[in-house]
Amino acid sequence: MDSKAIILFDGVCNLCNSSVQFIIKHDKAAYFNFASLQSDLGGQLKETKQIPDNADSIILMENGKVYMQSSAILRIARNLDGVWKLAAAALIIPRPIRDMVYRYVAKNRYRWFGKQDQCMLPSPELKERFL
Length: 131
Description:
This protein is of the alpha+beta class. The protein is about 40% helix and about 15% strand. It contains 4 helices and 4 strands. Strands 2-1-3-4 form a 4-stranded mixed sheet, with helices on one face. β1, α1 and β2 form a beta-alpha-beta unit.
């Protein structure tokens, strides 16, 4: 893990913002950096990496590769501290099944968890982790 990974996230989604806060809390090595999909950089990265427009929740960019949907979430978990690493074992579940569950949650995330009018602002001590 010599280079940092980038997590693109929906900056107005309450579930995505809570997930980012959770990742920060369980990423003591500060392996992950973050950029909202609504930011200029997020848009540039989506374009550069040819990420489809309908990819609108959490995207992981790691070691030159792009991971979306359940693969992104489980690969993020693999790099967290503590028991969260064990969630990566779910990568053995066939991706179509994992992604079906992921898409169901992603489709309903605004209804279940709400939405903000604007992207969250990181605290001064976390600002350097937000690109």
